[in-house]
């Protein structure tokens, strides 16, 4: 991982901390913002920037995801990413909601750090790309960008829970952590 990437990542994290500490739309409750001294992160690690092979689903399957407040939201399973972490083969499904930009994918997941070093309901990644992905395309999944959803900081937010298909049986010591 180039040092400038690690520096850019640290800068982005500092900007997010400022948003959480000061912005009116911060998920940190107003009474707690003065004590907020930043989010916890794993150190940037190139091991968790992985090349993933895309399998596109021409007829996306609808997936209903439960949310933290008991509601259900509907997504479309549009792609599957296949990759390795520490030599272990893994797959994650990429989703979007009907009508969303085809270049935006939502990738919620859990891993062996969930509930121990990271938020107990899972974490999210978002993947932006130009146009539609095709079978066999290669994309980079950067787990250094994995983040806890807003519901990790306040019960006023409702967040989709990663479906079981996106529960990884490996440690992903990258991105946001709880402490």
UniProtKB/TrEMBL annotation:
Domain of life: Archaea
Pfam families, A to Z: DUF1684
Gene3D superfamilies linked to this entry: 6.10.250.1680
InterPro entries per record: DUF1684
Chain intervals with Basic and acidic residues compositional bias: 7-20
Ranges for region Disordered: 1-35
Bilayer-crossing regions: none
Family matches, as PANTHER family: DUF1684 DOMAIN-CONTAINING PROTEIN (PTHR41913)
Protein name, as recorded: DUF1684 domain-containing protein
Organism of derivation: Haloarcula onubensis
């Amino acid at each position: 991982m180039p040092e400038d990437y690690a520096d850019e990542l640290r800068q982005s994290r500092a900007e997010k901390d400022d948003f959480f500490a000061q912005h009116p739309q911060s998920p940190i409750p107003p009474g707690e913002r003065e004590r907020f001294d930043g989010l916890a992160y794993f150190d940037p690690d190139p091991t968790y920037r992985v090349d993933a092979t895309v399998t596109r689903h021409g007829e996306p399957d609808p997936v209903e995801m439960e949310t933290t407040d008991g509601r259900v939201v509907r997504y479309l399973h549009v792609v599957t990413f296949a990759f390795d972490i520490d030599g272990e083969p893994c797959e994650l499904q990429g989703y979007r909601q009907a009508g969303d930009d085809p270049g935006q994918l939502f990738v919620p997941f859990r891993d062996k750090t969930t509930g121990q070093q990271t938020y107990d309901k899972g974490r999210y990644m978002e993947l932006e790309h130009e146009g539609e992905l095709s079978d066999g395309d290669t994309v980079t999944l950067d787990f250094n960008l994995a983040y806890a959803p807003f519901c990790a900081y306040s019960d006023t937010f409702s967040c989709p829970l990663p479906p079981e298909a996106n529960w990884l049986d490996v440690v992903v010591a990258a991105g946001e952590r709880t402490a």
